[in-house]
Amino acid sequence: MKFSGLIALASAALFGAANAQTTDIVSALVGYTKNNASIITGLAASSPLLSTIKSAKNITLFIPTNDAVAKLPASVLAQLSDQTVVDTVLSYHAVPGISFVPSADADLFVPTALADANLTVSGDGYQVVNVVVSGGKVVLNHGVANGPAKVIDSVVATNGVIHIVDTVLLPPVSVSQTATAAGLTTLVDTLVSAKLASIDSLKEVTIFAPTNAAFNTTLAALKSANVSLNLAQLQATLGIHVVPGVYHSTDLLKLAPVALSIGTYGGENITIEVDTTGVYVAGAGNSVAARVVTADVLVNSGVVHVIDTVLLPSTKLLTSLASNTDGLTVSQLNPVTPAVLGKTFTVPTPSAAAPSPSTTGSAPAPKSAAGRTVTSASLVLGFSAIAAVLFL
User: Fold this and answer.
1) Residue 372: left (phi > 0), alpha (psi -120 to 50), or beta?
2) Contact at 8 Å (CB) between 250 and 109?
3) How do beta strands 260-262 and 270-275 pair?
4) 383 pLDDT exceeds 50?
5) DSSP string, 308-336
6) Beta-carbon neighbour count of residue 118 at 10 Å?
7) Which of 87, 134, 279, 306 is the S-S candidate for 294 at Cβ 3.0 to 4.6 Å?
């Protein structure tokens, strides 16, 4: 994501000659007066990161205004007296390299300078910020707690670019903290009930998180079909919502028109498919695929995509767990790792070999005539089929 020569291009043509600088990025920051950003500038002055930034060859800094700092929750403001916290936040505002220009529309997931052990399985180990450029406007998506940030001004220095933003970028937090903040309370409660709260310990994952309404529909369907899942079956059901590897929306959109069968922590594959109406995900037991309704909720271990339907495992998997009354641990929910897994997303072609399926197999869910609209009736049919195998 580093573009050679982009600083000169940005200085001359994109940010305007008036903004072009002859000083390094730290001096440009200290001398910036157009929008009051003295709080972050003052905090940066006492940080050991400053010397690293000053000597960097190419770097992008996102600097919040004082008004942006004032919008922070009191609990966060209180922590800014801790130098470790300050360094963490500042690292998340620094991007090694010049990754975008305001004149070119883009949707990028840019690694920041904030290292995180949760992202070191196959990636580079750094938290990302989502940069969306549209119509000359730049919006940054980051941790869920503070809302998106807008770039309101830019300054070019000799060794980088400063973007002034109206919101402090907060680093992504754990899956459970993010789900709570996003209102996915039923998911959190279900993880606790399934003794899978340790999902926060997983590294580099993509999670398809059902909405509260999706869970409520599923619970009603279970009751209607007179189905009761034991602990292991519940854990496996939740497990197929978790995919090893980090797949942002920009990765998933590359799939069209190819469907991808990909391994999960539930012991069998799910199918991901893209068409003109959106991104759809299905477990082997789904009669109708789930639709991604909110994409790219960043967490410290990867990304969460919110879906409108609970993913269902195959009857074969549930049957194999019917006598397991002790449940499973996260470590026992071994993922089936497909060949495409990794930081660099490889788009399969129709003639290419599909990723290795699990022993339980999987199949794409049928598409409904109405854009795969999810109905309670379709879920009941799915659970009735499961009930026929498990309990009749």
Assistant:
1) left
2) yes
3) antiparallel
4) no
5) SS-----HHHHHHTTT--S---GGGS---
6) 21
7) 306
* Sequence-separated (6 or more) residues with CB below 8 Å from residue 327: 194, 195, 230, 231, 232, 235
**Burial of 92: CB neighbours in 10 Å, binned 0-12, 13-18, 19+:** buried
Reported as half-sphere exposure (CB side, CA atoms, 13 A), residue 105 has a value of: 2
**Largest Cα–Cα separation, the chain:** 78
Q: Positive or negative, the Cα torsion across 351, 356, 360, 363?
A: negative
Catalogue the E-assigned strands of 176-322: 205-210, 242-244, 260-262, 270-275, 278-282, 290-299, 302-307
pLDDT in tens, 268-295: 999 999 988 889 999 999 989 999 999 9
Q: How confident is the model at residue 377 (pLDDT cuts 50, 70, 90)?
A: very low
346-372 residue pLDDT tens: 222 222 222 232 323 333 333 332 233
Residue-wise pLDDT tens digits, 37-69: 888 888 888 888 888 888 888 899 999 999 999
Q: Are 295 and 250 in contact (CB under 8 A)?
A: no
pLDDT in tens, 186-212: 888 888 878 777 788 888 899 999 999
Task: Tell how strand 205-210 and strand 242-244 pair up.
Answer: antiparallel
Angstrom distance (rounded) from CA 372 to CA 277: 10
Which residues, in sequence order, are bridge partners of residue 160? 59, 157
pLDDT value at position 206? 94
Measured in residues, the chain has a length of 392
Nearest Cα neighbor of 268 from 229, 218, 321, 220 is 321
Cα–Cα distance between 215 and 221 in angstroms, integer?
10
Give the pTM. 0.78
The two three-digit tokens of residue 171, written as one number: 């680093």
Q: Which domains are seen in the chain, by residue range? A: 6-165 (2.30.180.10), 175-390 (2.30.180.10)
Separation CA 175–CA 319 (nearest Å): 29
pLDDT at 390: 31
User: 10 Å Cβ neighbour count for 94?
Assistant: 21
CA distance 140 to 149: 5
